[in-house]
Amino acid sequence: MSDLGHVLVLAGGLSYEREVSLSSGRRVTDALTSLGVEVELVDIDAHLLPRLLRDPPSAVFLAVHGIEGEDGALRDALDLSGVPYVGAPGSAARLAFDKPVAKAIVGRAGLRTPASVALQHAAFRDLGGPTLLARVVERLGLPLVVKPARGGSALGVTVVRAAADLPGAMVACYSYDSVALLESHITGTELAVSVVDDGNGPTALPAVEIEALSGTFDYAARYTAGMTEYHVPARLSPEQSAAAGAAAVLAHTTLGLRDLSRTDLIVDADGAVMYLETNVAPGMTTTSLLPLAAAAAGLDLGTLCRDLLHRAALRGYSRPGAPL
Amino acid sequence: MSGGSRLDSYIDRYAARTHGMTTSEIRALFAVANRPEIIGMGGGSPCVSALPLDIIAAMTAKVISDQGAQALQYMGGQGDPRLRELICGVMALEGIQDASPDDVIVTVGSQQALDIVSRIFLDPGDVVIAEAPSYVGALGTFTQYQADVVHVTMDDGGLVPEALRLAIAEVARSGRRAKFLYTVPNYHNPAGITLVEERRDEIIAICAEAGLLILEDNPYGLLGFDGPPLPALRARVSEGVIYLGSFSKTFAAGVRVGWALAPPGVKEKLIMASEATTLCPVALSQYVVAEFLEHHPWQQQVKVFRELYRARRDACLEALEGSFPVGSSWTRPAGGFYVWVTLPEGIDAKAMLPRAIQGRVAYVPGVGFYSDGQGQRNLRLAYSLPEPDRIREGVHRLAGVLAEELDIVATFSGGAFRPDCR
């Protein structure tokens, strides 16, 4: 039996990634149970906080994806409730979850990232949608990627190859978020590099190379086994692998993250590593990338989660607003 | 591809028909839509809380205590003879007076009936003719059997006979073979439209002339709000029609009991196909349904459902009238569960769904009811489950979502349209 005490895995919620989150949560719960950890999978709703206050767990593992789990609010609520949790504090999660903000922060730290512009719908409405879109295409070129500034699992993301398709992509994107990130499309090797911190500093796990058989790593390609080929470790030169690992660790530290993260990168035709985004609550499903990387590194998923819960329990909760 | 993992070690062994079986964004969104915080007007779930649950509990207990040895055992693949006889009584209310219990096959919901009919008739590349739009569950079944669906226009009077003639001719010209017309003539899912009386014989004649079987799906027939049901297509002819019925809407969806009434030769094949799938339909459910039909005033219960759904339909239509913008339109169902909404030009109901979920209301985008990509401007609202006040609130929320979406769409179309609210 584990000496960790009673822990909770939080999953579900009302974000668009609810189904993925529940799948992640179940997998983490099963992995912890197999190690003898006293663990319970709990949904996110109005019953959660009263329950946490009534019967506080030793620590919480956050398998909540999307805005509900990654924008920082839930983490702040846990801190306010005095409940320790695995992962970045709310203030850091909030920065990392906002793709344009995260790109700006890691860009200042020296990481390269595709040219992009982040625009609210109001900007298009006030300045003239078609005119502004034309300027975007002129400056960023085609193809370009339209994605919600905040969100995951490629929901609302469109790769636009013809200008005529851009208005539809914008409308679809704004259905998910009020800010759209329009980013130059980089052709190259897509990578996901997970970072874990077992107490000895953040360390990159082997990079996972993503080869979507349809050509686009969209929602279906992410969560339908068989639609994507994963190469772990990625088919990169030793120098490129090292650069990708270093980029992910730099993103993790620069964004003020904690315990675990997953950074998505792309190695362009010239071999340069480009930053795309960082996930503060990486997926844990059977087709998710962090568990693949952990397995390649010889780490047992349950052991990893249990150790991170131990660290969180020892660390205790944070006072909201405390410096990173 | 080399050396990587596709995370599915069986990937090279699946049948060709599994191609396209992928998870989707829509599934992800519906996982949220089922939460109680969301006003769910997506799924066509019956209001089973209106059933006398204590009586059904006692009825079920009685079935097990009195007939448990049969109700908990395998039975014949065609289904319980007593239930088949009672089903003939139900069909008589739809005008089908000549049904024999020998020609009835009990199935696991009418969805299984759709499956076994498709299995015995459809080869890959065959054509099924269906209304535009058509029931998504049927389209999914036809796709599984690798059939192509050709849609035929409906208007306020239902399937348009001339459009059906043209579709049959077009399929023949293309060298393909249409095997049957799939139709929901009463209180259509998703369109809420009913095939008018004066077209019924004509549709039958067109199909007979073309040698086209009719697959008549009639789960909502007894749930009309304006008088007795129109006689079913099968009530007019005994050949050339396979009739599907269900207790999902008139009793309880969870018992999963439906049926098919088929010409004798077809029936034999359906029984064999059904046995290959399930050995026999669920015995316990059949006994409970039979008990309900035989010893409970079930027609009174159907009347309760009718009144309840009528009030909900009215709430939905009133709310639409009061809050939806110019440029949108909707059907006015005389029964059943659904209103089919056409949104203003430029709106894509599927793209708008995340915004609706965020606004705490859910619907089904129209594209799912077509096999050819139509329906972008459409959505289906099901009024069967939420209380009238929740329906009004849901429609008002949706109107707000639609106003936001119109603003966005107008932005990217150069402000060509900004419809005012009614």
Describe the structure.
- The complex is a heterodimer of chains A (324) and B (422).
- Helices cover 39% and strands 23% of the residues of chain A.
- Chain A contains 13 helices and 13 strands.
- In chain A, strand 8 and strand 9 form a beta hairpin.
- In chain A, helix 4 (73-80) packs antiparallel against helix 5 and helix 7 (121-127) packs across helix 8 (129-140).
- The mean pLDDT of chain A is 93.
- Mean pLDDT of chain B is 94; it is low at 415-422.
- The radius of gyration of chain B is 22 Å and the shape is globular.
- The termini of chain B are far apart.
- In chain B, helix 7 (197-210) links the parallel strand 6 and strand 7 (213-217).
- Chain B is built from 14 helices and 14 strands.
- Chain B has 422 residues and is an alpha/beta fold.
Tell me briefly what this model is.
The complex is a heterodimer of chains A (324) and B (422). Chain A is an alpha+beta fold. Helices cover 39% and strands 23% of the residues of chain A.
List the helices and strands and how they pair.
The complex is a heterodimer of chains A (324) and B (422).
Chain A: E1 6-11, H1 18-34, E2 38-43, H2 48-54, E3 59-62, H3 67-70, H4 73-80, H5 90-97, H6 99-108, E4 116-120, H7 121-127, H8 129-140, E5 144-148, E6 158-160, H9 166-174, E7 179-184, E8 188-197, E9 202-204, E10 208-212, H10 219-223, E11 228-231, H11 238-254, E12 260-268, E13 273-279, H12 289-296, H13 301-315
Parallel strand pairs in A: 1-2, 1-3
Antiparallel strand pairs in A: 4-7, 5-6, 5-7, 8-9, 8-10, 8-12, 10-11, 12-13
Chain B: H1 25-33, E1 39-40, H2 53-71, H3 81-92, E2 104-107, H4 109-121, E3 127-132, H5 136-144, E4 148-155, E5 158-159, H6 161-173, E6 178-183, H7 197-210, E7 213-217, H8 233-236, E8 241-246, H9 248-252, E9 258-261, H10 264-278, H11 283-295, H12 298-323, E10 329-330, E11 338-342, H13 349-358, E12 361-362, E13 364-365, E14 378-382, H14 388-412
Parallel strand pairs in B: 1-12, 3-4, 3-6, 6-7, 7-8
Antiparallel strand pairs in B: 2-9, 4-5, 8-9, 10-11, 11-14, 13-14
Helix pairs in contact in B: 1-13, 2-11, 4-5, 4-10, 6-7, 12-14
